[in-house]
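User: Could you go from structure to sequence for me? I need the amino acid at each position, not a summary. Structure tokens:
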């Protein structure tokens, strides 16, 4: 499949820019798909994200995956970051559902080890209607159990967008879980830039350094294992997980200039999960954009022109999201006003009677 190469992979890059690629038709195809768009790292689903169980890999497919990794110089222990199924929720207070999640989770980890993959990223889930701290302990206990049933794959917790019972919107959730993991060498964190911004952690201007200082104080850089690099369709603190193409959202391109000057993200997977309209060639273009910023030292004029072009491309989407948020805010304010009025009437029956 090397004849399909459209974007040459940058050799000896200390920034492992890559993307989430398809594994359709066989897990080994993910390696070709990554190479063809110039990835220095990549993510994939280990099985169908739409169903709980999938057929096990054949020995032939496992060998093909390993051979292609060797051929294209991908170290599966360092350069590949599979993504767990979205419906896995090890923090679910309903035992039967939590056990079902654990079965799929453990299957993913074992698939990683059969392919010699060293990292596995997943969403830590939600405590739903359960006690949040109790469910964090449950999440940690399942991870400990899975670590004991496997040999080397590192479990990588992803931070989340949102509030309330969603685990990982607050970095302290991740710290709480990590503290309960018995083998600290088998646990890490993936920072998703869209999730971070949506959860209310500012990444722009001076706040960039403040966020990473906070990350180091709460969790510690030694646990940072990967980056999911996405712009955000919605503004800071919107609590919505809506990824946008690089430079077209509310985070913008200046952030990428700061990020690519940060040594602490070198030599770890930096994975694009931005929206794809036509095909994966768009990922190849964004990888080249990142390499342009990181290595070609564009002039201020060149960079500003790129900023304007990308912001114009995303202007309609940003405007639509702002209108949707304003509408939602007004609706919430009206509902709150009605609720307060009802509660006031219940507490003041005499006042209501006089009216």
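Assistant: Here is the amino acid at each position, in order:
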């Amino acid at each position: 499949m090397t004849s399909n190469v459209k974007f040459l992979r940058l050799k000896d890059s200390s920034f492992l820019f890559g993307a989430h690629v398809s594994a359709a038709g066989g897990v080994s195809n993910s390696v070709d798909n990554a190479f063809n768009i110039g990835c220095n790292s990549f993510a994939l689903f280990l099985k169908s994200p739409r169903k709980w169980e999938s057929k096990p890999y054949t020995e032939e497919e496992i060998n093909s995956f390993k051979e292609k990794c060797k051929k294209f110089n991908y170290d599966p222990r360092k350069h590949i970051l599979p993504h767990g199924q979205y419906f896995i929720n090890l923090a679910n207070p309903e035992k039967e559902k939590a056990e079902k999640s654990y079965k799929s989770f453990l299957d993913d980890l074992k698939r990683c080890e059969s392919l010699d993959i060293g990292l596995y990223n997943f969403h830590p889930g939600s405590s739903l209607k359960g006690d949040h701290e109790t469910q964090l302990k449950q999440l940690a206990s399942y991870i400990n159990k899975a670590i004991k049933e496997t040999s080397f794959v590192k479990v990588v917790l992803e931070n989340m967008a949102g509030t309330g019972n969603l685990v990982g919107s607050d970095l302290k959730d991740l710290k709480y879980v990590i503290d309960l993991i018995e083998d600290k060498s088998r646990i890490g964190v993936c920072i998703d830039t869209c999730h971070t911004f949506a959860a209310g952690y500012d990444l722009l201007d001076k706040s960039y350094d403040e966020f990473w200082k906070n990350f180091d104080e709460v969790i510690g850089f030694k646990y940072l294992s990967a980056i999911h690099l996405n712009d955000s369709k919605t503004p800071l603190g919107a609590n919505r997980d809506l990824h946008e193409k690089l430079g077209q959202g509310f985070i913008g391109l200046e952030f990428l200039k700061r990020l690519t000057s940060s040594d602490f993200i070198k030599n770890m997977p930096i994975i694009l999960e931005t929206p794809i309209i036509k095909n994966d060639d768009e990922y190849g273009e964004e990888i080249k954009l990142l390499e342009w910023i990181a290595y070609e030292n564009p002039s201020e004029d060149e960079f500003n022109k790129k900023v304007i072009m990308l912001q114009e491309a995303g202007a309609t989407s940003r405007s639509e999201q702002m209108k949707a948020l304003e509408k939602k805010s007004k609706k919430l304010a009206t509902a709150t006003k009605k609720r307060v009025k009802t509660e006031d009437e219940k507490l003041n029956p005499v006042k209501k009677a006089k009216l």
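One structural detail worth keeping in mind: The longest strand covers residues 187-192.
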